[in-house]
Design goal:
It is built from twelve helices and 19 strands. By secondary structure, it is α+β, with helices and mostly antiparallel strands. The protein has three domains: 105 residues, Aminopeptidase, CATH 3.40.630.30; 159 residues, Aminopeptidase; 94 residues, Nonspecific Lipid-transfer Protein, Chain A, CATH 3.30.1050.10. Strand 4, helix 3 and strand 5 form a beta-alpha-beta unit. The radius of gyration is 23 Å and the shape is globular.
Length: 412
Amino acid sequence: MASRSIPCTPVLKFRELPESELDRALDLAYLAFHEKPGAELRAHHRELLRGCVRVGAYDGDALVATVSAFPFTLSVPGGELPCPGVTFACVAPTHRRRGALTGMLAELFARCAAQDWPIAALWASEAVIYGRFGFGEGTRGFTVEIDSTRPLALRIAPDDRPLRLLSPADAPAQLAALYDRTRADRPGRIARTRAWWTDEWMNQKDEEDSAYSPPRVVALGEPLAGYAIYRTKRDHDAPGLVRVDDLEAESPAVAAALWQYVTSIDLTAKVRAWGRPVDDPLLLFAADRDQVRVTAGFPALWLRLLDVRTALLRRSYAAPVDVVLDVHDAHLPANSGPHHLTSGPAGTSYEPTHDPADISLAVRDLAACYLGGTTPTALVRAGLATEHAPGAAAALEAALRTEWSPHTVDGF
């Protein structure tokens, strides 16, 4: 019988993607995501990648997959942590299911460990993919739509100080201080550099944006007490749409004034705000919930605890806690096994132990709890965590609680 040769799948190699290969990386990303950007947007993406940690997967000399990470800083309960923002993750259609993403993330996680970055985050193009790599649903968002064919009905009096429009060129310098103050109140928010303000928030940079006006910025108060960044769109003779991209306010009355403003813009009939926090006060002070409707809810920022010990030590706790957590992490085994978490007036510790576990859970589910968006008791009820000691999940939940729900609206 004649022998048959069995095709051999080449072994992929994973290494740093040099700046000289950024155009190859962009070509691959546009192939994977079915995009055809213009020269200006391509130049924008190239500049973004230049500032990233970059990993490529190679089949011989051919670049077949990439992943990159922005060097972000994320607000966490009681402070902030360096948090690479994973982006431009793509695999050539010829090399799917060959371990490319697994290998690239392992290389990226190793680079994060070398930088002492204890957490990472991403927006998932397909939510089913990243849970198996240890990412959990760190924040959630709502899409809110408001019928603006009539005045916005409110249960509270809006702030009556004058509103003013800011030019996009001047806005970053004026908005940044308020954003930083309100950012500290909510976990899950990235620190915005001047370049991020200018290039991501004040720039008309993609095909979807081309249907809308340039960004408009309305501000209230002096010193600044609130602002909204919005765009408008009008189709021929039909009433237009106001798209609210960001709205920050230091009080409910300020928020009410800003919502009242965007719903009163002439020649528009609807306001749509994507990515609002799940505890947005608008949903309570709106007098007519038929006028203000939540039309979608979705996972937003996905969080990965790369170094569970450091992440838990560097956040604050709302109540004393003394539990043994048995965490399972298939990709980063150093995180696995029972550890004793204590926090109180003497400080916080998280150390390996031989004591029996009070709660067992996967690292992705601990990540979902880390910012306060998911509760341990909900995980137990869903069968995703096991409570071995009665009351342990409730005690951990009380410690992880945050005053405001975690939230982010910065996509990347």
